[in-house]
Design brief:
CATH class of the largest domain: Mainly Beta
Helix content: 40-55%
Mean pLDDT: 78
Radius of gyration: 22 Å
Distance between the termini: 31 Å
CATH architecture of the largest domain: Sandwich
Number of helices: 12
Structural class: alpha+beta
Shape: globular
CATH superfamily of the largest domain: Jelly Rolls
């Protein structure tokens, strides 16, 4: 039996209290997806219990390095609210038990079992009147999930938003969505989360299973999202989507992208298409191609043991020196420096 603890009902200030960066939740290039279930439970007087390191620390896995952890927060006056904050990554939240009030720039809304929240990069929110909440937070850096999200390129709603965030590096929404799942949808998400948590405890967890469970959770969330937001949240011109999709394929095939040829096939001038692309994405199509190629090279550096020379040739660079120059200009370090930093085990809890 739990004790009832009175909460301070004063609203958290909508002045930004803090920003949560990827390091705080353990996100990095080779760990772009984290699951964390938080229990705001009066039955546990444990304080903030640290989840600790991987159950098998010797099992250093490359991308995606997903992890599922749990910890408990004791219920008291301070933990009845979460201060107004924002994130430098995308957060998906599923409320599994309890109730609270969710605070955003647009107002306040009650949350309870089945409530789902999407917080974009830079989106601000907080909570008050937290009452025995159990919630699972999914932290993700969409850029490093773009390969998996490409499977869902033609799907509307949440998938398109995540792809736009991953590929175009623009906060095209700049806020917070809240919507409701049915009980059946909530149970379906919980089933996948349980499978993820079980798999995470194994010595050799299946990355394919992690990917599959995560995409199934996204699918369920997307169904509920579309009910709330039937209009496309990312109203981009089809020419831009088509170009971005073609560029992704060319990057992986190691073939060059010709702006003039692409524009001509769509009855546009090179300058007209470049202007349309830049006005939408924030950079020209050739600059976008070079950035996507550098980011795919970065992923290859983490995922494989290929030499830098082999990666450069496979992705269509003239040689390793050419790749190194562009890579450093776009990502701030040389390929060898990047590989060393990314694969050095400095994991967060």
């Amino acid at each position: 039996m739990t004790n009832n603890i009175a909460c301070n009902n004063e609203r958290p200030s909508q002045e930004l209290d803090h920003t949560v960066n990827p390091d705080v939740v353990g996100l990095r290039a080779d760990r772009p997806l984290r699951f964390c279930t938080i229990h705001y439970s009066q039955a546990h007087k444990l304080g903030w219990t640290q989840p600790g390191d991987d159950p098998h620390p010797e099992n250093v896995r490359p991308y995606p390095g997903m992890r599922s952890i749990e910890f408990y927060v004791p219920a008291n006056e301070e933990t009845c609210q979460v201060p107004y904050h924002n994130h430098e990554f995308v957060e998906l939240v599923l409320i599994r038990q309890g109730q609270a009030v969710h605070i955003t720039p647009e107002g306040e809304n009650p949350i309870q079992r089945g409530s789902a929240i999407i917080v974009t990069q830079g989106g601000r929110h907080g909570f008050r009147d937290i009452d025995r909440i159990i919630k699972t937070n999914i932290y993700l850096q969409p850029d490093w999930l773009s390969e998996d999200l490409r499977l869902l390129w033609g799907e509307p709603g949440l998938f398109r938003f995540l792809l736009a965030d991953a590929l175009f590096h623009q906060n095209l929404h700049g806020g917070v969505w809240q919507f409701e799942l049915t009980e059946e949808e909530t149970v379906a998400c919980e089933r996948e989360l349980a499978e993820l948590h079980r798999e995470a405890q194994k010595l050799h967890p299946s990355l394919a299973l992690f990917n599959g469970c995560f995409l199934k959770i996204l699918w369920v969330l997307n169904e509920a999202f579309i009910r709330k937001e039937p209009d496309d949240p990312i109203p981009l011109r089809k020419e831009v989507w088509s170009a971005a999709e073609q560029i992704e394929g060319m990057v992986r095939m190691g073939t060059p992208f010709h702006v003039e040829e692409f524009a001509r096939r769509r009855g546009m001038s090179r300058s007209g298409f470049t202007r349309l692309f830049k006005n939408t994405i924030g950079m020209g199509p050739m600059d976008y191609y070079q950035e996507r190629r550098a980011r795919y090279a970065a992923r290859c550096l983490i995922e494989s043991e290929e030499s830098i020379t082999d990666i450069a040739h496979r992705l269509g660079y003239s040689d390793a020196a050419h790749m190194t120059r562009l890579f450093k200009r776009l990502l701030g370090s040389t390929p060898s420096e990047y590989r060393k930093m990314a694969l050095t085990k400095t994991d967060m809890p």
